[in-house]
Every structure is written in C-alpha cells, then in structure tokens.
Amino acid sequence: MRGIPALMILALIVLSVLMITVGWANRADVGYIPVIIGVIWGVFSLACIAGRAAPSAS
User: Fold this and answer.
1) Rg of the chain on CA atoms, in Å
2) Residue 6: Cβ-neighbour burial (10 angstroms; 0-12, 13-18, 19+)
3) What is the pLDDT of residues 13-50, one digit of tens each?
C-alpha cells in the first residue's frame, strides 16, 4: 500500500467520513450499508497510512 498517493488517501478519508455521516443520518431509509462501506473505507485508509509510515524493508 506504499504506492497509493497521499492525495488519494485524503480523498478516501473524506469519502469515508461522508459515507458514515450521511449513511447514519439516512439509516432509516437506506439501512446500514453506507455506514458499513464507510467504515471499511476508513479501515483501508488507516492501513494505507500505516503502510506509508512504516520503514521500507529494502
């Protein structure tokens, strides 16, 4: 995950926050699927950040 650009990671974070907030506000209409997708994107974003921060093996 070291090859993902920082701007794309930032976009993933913004999208995950939007999916969680909008999904939670509209959970009566659309269910919990947007919230679940937002949480998955958030976890993926955190993994990308951790991969960029870790020292390289070579």
Assistant:
1) 14
2) exposed
3) 999 999 999 999 999 999 999 999 999 999 999 988 88
Which tokens in the block code for residue 7? Answer: 């701007």
Angle of CA points 51, 54, 57, to nearest 5°:
105
**pLDDT at residue 57, rounded to an integer:** 67
| DSSP labels, 5-24 | -HHHHHHHHHHHHHHHHHHH
- How far lies 36's CA from each of 2, 8, 31, 46, 56, in Å? 25, 20, 10, 15, 31
Claim: this prediction has a pTM higher than 0.70: yes
